[in-house]
User: Fold this.
Amino acid sequence: MHRCWGGRLHGSRHQLDHNGAAASGAAAPRLIPRYSERVAQVITESPSPAEPLLRLRGIEKHFGPVQALYNVDLDLPSGQVTALCGDNGAGKSVLTKCIAGIYQVDHGQFFWEGQPVTIHSPRDSAKLGIETVYQDLALADNLDIVQNMFLGRERLRNGLLNEDDMERAASQTLANLRVTTVRSIRQPVASLSGGQRQSVAVAKAVMWNSKLVMLDEPTAALGVVQTQMVLDLVRRLRDRGLAVMVISHNLNDVFEVADRIAILHLGRKVAEDRASTFDRQSVVEYMTTGAHGPAVQAGNDKGQHGTS
Amino acid sequence: MAQAEAPESRIDPTASAEAAIVVPPEIVAQSLGEWFRAWLVRLRAGQSGVLPVVLGLVLISIVFTAISPNNLFLSAGNLVNLFQQSAVFMVLAMAEIFVLLLGEIDLATGFTAGVGGVVAVQLVQPVTTKWPWWGAIAVALLVCALIGLLQGTLITRLRLSSLIVTLAGSLILSGVLLILLGLGPFSGYPSLLGRNPNILTLYKLMWGTIDPVLSWIGMALVVIAVGSFLWLGDSRRRRSGLVAPPASLTILKIALIAVVSVVVVAICNVNRANLGTLEGVPWVIPIVLAVLAVWMVLIQRTTFGRYVYAIGGNPEAARRAGVNLAAIRTWCFVLCAFTAGIGGLLYASYLGGMSNNFNGGQIVLYAIAAAVIGGTSLFGGRGKMLHGVLGGLVIGGIYNGMYLLAIDVKWQFIVTGLVLLVAVTIDALSRRSATSGSAARV
Assistant:
């Protein structure tokens, strides 16, 4: 992760590094013009009068001398799918992990239902009702669907596992999400298809009365039909009033399910608005150059040198 | 939404048909016939379950009965002896399963058992320490648990390889064993001979017998308890519409348990002495069953057991679920060594003492072979406590058969090695067929 931002040191507010390496950052060529003015024009205030479920303000995160997120603001409203886009190394995963509590932010504030909150650990975020479905799904192949869905939060009766109760709850959740293609809820996850695994991972995330579900590249490894199945699932989560954040490279998926789109570029949020205000062209421009429109200069083409 | 449903229902049958090979038959079958067909499908796909063990047992019985002098192998006396010899392997295999489920290995199990055995034997000696039998057993098991704690801590906290740590542990413990054997009155060969009640109790762990009538009553109670537990559990799940095997399968299972129990007790109740009477179920059978029952509950019905399987299947998933990996792993090594201590007590009891002939290096290989032959995977995440008991019976059968034939020790070594190789090969092949199956499905 560290090398993604190598050479783009940002020495203004964060001389927190341990070895003084950031001092050399001043010598690095400024590849990124100041976007703040332009971004301000792009963002039109959300028309929704309600407070978004989760509001991020001024999130900053660095790893040693390497700055991963610069002053990121993001709103995640309930009942809407927000797509988080960006090229490799834009900071999508870092931002997600900050919200999930895996990383702790250096600066910035979280507002959960309008109240300021702190997220220091995955437990904190889980307590708020935030669940993350990672790209590698984190399912144990040798356990069955019920066992996976309750892993780490088993229900007990007299100190022993209450399998009946867990099985009922799991099958209820799967039925609500209309995940009906599995043959038996007691089959090991090893025997499921890619789309079915993704469905189980999502069902696992929503079973805990979660209010915000973040999906990291949910369709990356799936075929056409299974992608459709997962996107339908995402819509169902939204229809149930959950806030959904989908991280995706795939613009087809983004435009198919997203109500809102937020775009990161080199650790800065460069755009955030209703999906209808974007088109494919503009999203690609934001992702690759960090800006959109005639103002984009040819000199900005170094914007996509981040790799992972 | 209706259009969206259509493709789902179209892919459904194909996904399931591909998946059928690894879905256990008892969770999808509605009737006995259906279960049998699903089982055959699975068998053809290389997912053999306990079949190799059962076939192995049948093969061993036939071969050794045919070639043993006077077809002694299947005589009542030898079968009881076989149970007693197997008991050590069964318990050590159950010990090993704790760490095998994690995908780790404990090569020190044999010498841990040896140390446990010798500690207990030395402590009850009436001319030196004079400890009561229960104190000696408690200390012996505690020492074993501490050995496990030490090894487990090194492996989990310092992230050392369990193979190397326990190999070193095995070597160290073999030295410790010799030191402990050298203490006391019968230097090198502390024994359990004599009429001292404490010595006698340790000796009876293996050789004590339960009165034939009591044996029958006890067996009946156990079968009724296990049978009604199975029946009530399965029928409750069937009534609530949860996944459950068909009633006929439950009945078949209970009937199988009952038949095996009756046969075992009947064999044990035959008078197997050449002179006088020696009959009844040896203590060791209920001891092994109790270990099996307790560990089965722990590993299959508690969160601890669930986490053990999760770590063996996908440590990252377990970590993200909030499981304390280091603690669970360390506990598995402790439980492994503790259970090995029980095995060591049985071993000492079987030999009527401990001696410096104790071959912990060979015994641990037998234990691992027993667990793997029973169906537990060396790669972690797959296995049951019952596998240790079934595999232990196979290993015990081979050991006993070779003993009956008075096969030279050099051939015993070679056969041990071959058995282990066969077991590992079966494990690797079944794993390969399972993973290639799932790769095709992605």
Observations:
- The mean pLDDT of chain B is 86.
